[in-house]
Design goal:
32% of the residues lie in helices and 23% in strands. The protein is an alpha/beta fold. The protein has one domain: TIM Barrel. It has a nine-stranded mixed sheet. The chain is globular and about 35 Å long. The termini are far apart.
């Protein structure tokens, strides 16, 4: 099966991907989504047929919890956030670990389950390579995600893995997964930046979704 481990819907302030649009895209591309909205699991719960995740802003950058049942509040320490994820039986996924343009974690000396070694929104590919090299050196399970915020970003980055029935089986199967990655174009980069900025700085203050 194909799984996109990191993507956003309109329930992230900086994204505009409607759930009905995502459902069509998943069917078209035969991809099972892991919905990881910023500090929210509402979109994932409404979508239902997905891995429920959350990109959580800790005191030291973003962490993703996968296989969650409840929202985890932002502003905790890395260790507190990891504990909250584990209390729910979830997995700790580290997104874009070296991308200084975004809120990457400031340190990596904590217990993680998966490191994102390719993020579809990382423009400087040396940063994705740095993540891959680090994961290999530390023997960390590797994952990839489109980090899609708009529809055209979806469907180009995902893992091909065996089906799973639990977080632990997911982790076991991810170890031997095939990682499919695609760097986005300069045109797509411009479109994404424009839409994200519009939603974050104009729509969010007005509480419009």
């Amino acid at each position: 099966m194909k799984v996109d481990l990191h993507l956003h819907t309109k329930y992230s302030a900086c994204a505009n991907l409607e759930l009905k649009t995502l459902r069509k895209l998943c069917k078209k591309n035969n991809i099972f989504p892991s919905i990881t909205d910023h500090n929210s699991i509402e979109g994932a719960k409404r979508f239902k047929d997905c891995i429920i995740g959350e990109e959580i802003l800790t005191k030291e950058g973003d962490l993703i919890g996968l296989f969650l049942n409840e929202k985890i509040k932002s502003g905790l320490s890395i260790e507190e956030t990891v504990d909250k994820i584990k209390e729910q039986g979830g997995l700790v996924y580290v997104p874009h670990p070296f991308d200084w343009r975004r809120k990457c974690v400031k340190r990596l000396n904590f217990k993680m389950d998966v490191m994102e070694i390719f993020n579809g929104r990382v423009w400087q590919q040396s940063l994705n390579k740095k993540a891959k090299d680090y994961a290999k050196r530390k023997n960390i399970i590797m994952g990839v995600g489109s980090d899609a915020h708009i529809a055209p970003e979806f469907g180009k980055t995902y893992v091909e893995m065996d089906r799973f029935n639990s977080p632990q089986e997911f982790l076991k199967n991810l170890k031997k997964a095939n990682l499919v990655t695609t760097k986005r174009s300069a045109e797509m980069q411009f479109r994404v930046n424009a839409i994200s900025a519009f939603r974050k700085y104009l729509l969010k203050p007005l509480r419009i979704r």
